[in-house]
Amino acid sequence: xxxxxxxxxxxxxxxxxxxxxxxxxLELSEENVLMLWSQxxxxxxxxxxxxxxxxxxxxxxFHDTIQQISGKEEFIALCNRLxxxxxxxxxxxxxxxxxxxxxxxxxxxxxxxxxxxSTPIFGSTKLTLHEDGRIIRQRDxxxxxxxxxxxxxxxxxxxRKFMHKKFG
Length: 168
Prior knowledge:
The chain is an alpha+beta fold. 29% of the residues lie in helices and 43% in strands.
């Protein structure tokens, strides 16, 4: 079986059977995470997470700069809220690796809102897999305000000056 996985501008071809974990789920390898997340974000229009919800454990803990939530229902509600807020959302995965039961990847996410210009945000995600192969913990790391403030011409320079003065 041949699978094609798109990564940014590259095409990676994998000539092997992809291991399945039952319940119509693939093993969450580097290649499969790249393929699944690319299907989620890199379409024209709103993101669609519906095909990856089955990869999340019922007791998922999601934590990012803004919030921490527990449980699959809360995670699905979070994804639905983000879908409603964004006109379009793209994610380019730059680097991905897996070691034991952890997967990490660096990304550039570009959000297009209805009334504001496109806003790129750079970050990393750490997925921790449960023994059954589903995601039990997801931690997203990003500098939300720095990336947003960089996109505001009149605010970028004073913000960076303040950050340099106070933090380094």
